[in-house]
Amino acid sequence: MTRAISLHDVSKSYARGPRVVDRVSLDIAPGEFLVLLGPSGCGKSTVLRMIAGLEEIDDGALFLDGEHANDWLPADRDIAMVFQNFALYPSMSSRDNIGFPLRIEAPAADPAPRVDATARLLGIEDLLDRFPGQLSGGERQRVAMGRAIARHPSAFLMDEPLSNLDAKLRNHLRAEIAQLTRELGVTTVYVTHDQSEAMSLGDRVAVLRGGVLQQVGTPREVYALPRNVFVAAFVGTPRINLLRGLVRAPLDGAMTVSLGKQYLRLPEPLSLDHQLLRVQQGREVIVGLRSEAVRIARHSAARPGEVPLTGLVEHMEFQGHETLVHFDTGSRPAVVPELEAPRPAARAARRRRREGAGVLDRLRERAGSLRAGPVAVLEQPQETVPEPAPPEGRLPGDLVVRTTPDIRLRHGMQVPLLVDLAHLFVFDQHGDRICPSPARLPDLEE
Ligand SMILES: Nc1ncnc2c1ncn2[C@@H]1O[C@H](COP(=O)(O)OP(=O)(O)OP(=O)(O)O)[C@@H](O)[C@H]1O
Ligand SMILES: [Mg+2]
Q1: 405 versus 7: which is more confidently predicted?
Q2: Is 440 helix (H, G, I), strand (E, B) or coil?
Q3: Over the stretch 167-202, which tens digit does the pLDDT of each residue have?
Q4: Does 133 have pLDDT greater than 70?
Q5: Which of 93, 282, 376, 428 lies at a 20 to 30 A Cα distance from 227?
Q6: Listing from the earlier edge strand, what are the strands of the sheet with 414-420?
Q7: How remote is the CA of residue 337 from the centroid of ligand 2, in Å?
Q8: Closest-lying ligand 1 atom to the alpha carbon of residue 49
């Protein structure tokens, strides 16, 4: 038996504070592996705890197999939860740790056959007589998983179960979890803030921001058709390039998206997607270019649909199998505040100078940076001190391009780039996607 789990407009706040989960609706099919993805504090664990019955639901409804379950006791939900800080009983062997929930559930039955079968499934037969203190982190995690599995629950809820482990072990166990839950065919809701984990594990991924569900879709859908700039920026490595642009139709009639000192000229006749930009004329937009949308090549080598851009090499990141080249194209980056890693102060100051926004602009942006509201595009909205004009010449990179590791480039070199407009994303001022068309259906993607 595996459960269908449905949330209908579920909300939650703590101690009359703001909603930390805000009208979340989700339908999880029996046997599905759904990943809840979002930055720290966005409400992922709270959603999970409400499904488990460990947290009350303020508003909205939870359905388990179609039955209204808001008031069911946790024990009646037949759901097993695996936490980040998996707690094993230190005075019990692995065998007893795994068997413990079975003994509680059916005191008269012998747990041994189930414990053995579970241990075989997880490859931990030789660990059964050891105590938690005699196990490595990964082994302990497997025993904790065993404790959840042995009961044959009808759903698993996993809250960042791998985040305490080192990268190699995490990758290994990630693959095991995926295989195991598929073999068992049990509905699983898996919480993580790691987008690559989400993309590699989920049948579908639900992206949460400030308690508000942003998008639910297959990993391919959220990558290729992100509903807004937040999802676009959260999913995918290297991070999508987000540049502030302005839609224009100059005198000769061709539509362009200007990016500071340069512009992208949209080829005529306009594609259906690019036609949608007409109504944005004169408005600021956010241009999104994933690394596959830009390549280093002579402008004369442009293929149909590719338009030229020029970048100054700012910085190179050697990654072994590839190199990430950071270019300065003279455009201004758009920023999603929750997703910004802190930058060295000098670099941030340089960038702020370049943004050169006035006080009014900043206040407007600050007003726009409310939790689930429009995406603020300034780096540090709390800063209201006007900055001097940008220094000409050396500016930090605004466009990251992926290339082969053997590329020979030097800092400051001027490099021709080609942008593939088939991969162009454009978001409006609120961060909602305008291009490709929001009406684009995932199954129309090639
Ligand atoms: N018991 C509580 N009382 C008050 N506020 C709480 C409580 N539990 C969580 N919160 C707040 O609710 C918000 C959502 O918390 P939650 O634990 O669901 O986030 P999360 O997405 O799981 O974050 P993380 O990735 O850091 O685990 C946070 O702002 C948190 O501070
Ligand atoms: Mg959490």
Answers
A1: 7
A2: coil
A3: 877 888 888 888 888 888 999 999 999 999 999 999
A4: yes
A5: 282
A6: 294-296, 414-420, 306-318, 323-328, 399-403
A7: 20
A8: 18
Which residue minimizes the CA distance to atom 17 of ligand 1? 45
The residue among 227, 278, 226 whose CA lies nearest residue 257 is: 278
Could you write out the DSSP letters of every residue in 194-229? -HHHHHHH-SEEEEEETTEEEEEE-HHHHHHS-SBH
The full set of domains in the chain, from first to last, is 5-232 (3.40.50.300), 233-444 (no CATH)
Ligand 1 atom 25: the closest Cα is on which residue?
A: 40
The residue whose CA has the least distance to atom 27 of ligand 1 is 40
Which ligand lies nearest the alpha carbon of 210? 1
**181 in Cβ contact with 188 (< 8 Å):** yes
**Which ligand ends up closest to the CA of 192?**
1
CA of 123 to the centre of ligand 1 (A): 34
| Cα atoms in the Cβ-side hemisphere of radius 13 Å centred on 223 | 18
Q: How far apart are CA 232 and CA 243, in angstroms?
A: 13
CA distances from 251 to 248, 258, 277, 285 (A): 10, 14, 17, 21
In testing the pocket of ligand 1, which one of 12, 14, 47, 57 has its CB within 8 Å of the most ligand atoms?
A: 14
Distance 54 CA to ligand 2 centre (A): 14
> pTM of the entire structure?
0.84
DSSP-derived 3-state class of residue 262: strand
Mean pLDDT, the chain, rounded, equals 85
Residues framing ligand 1 (Cβ under 6 A): 14, 20, 38, 40-46, 193
Q: Is the pLDDT of residue 392 over 50?
A: no
**Which atom, in ligand 1's list, is nearest to the CA of 44?**
21
3-state percent breakdown (helix, strand, coil) of the chain, nearest 5: 30, 30, 40
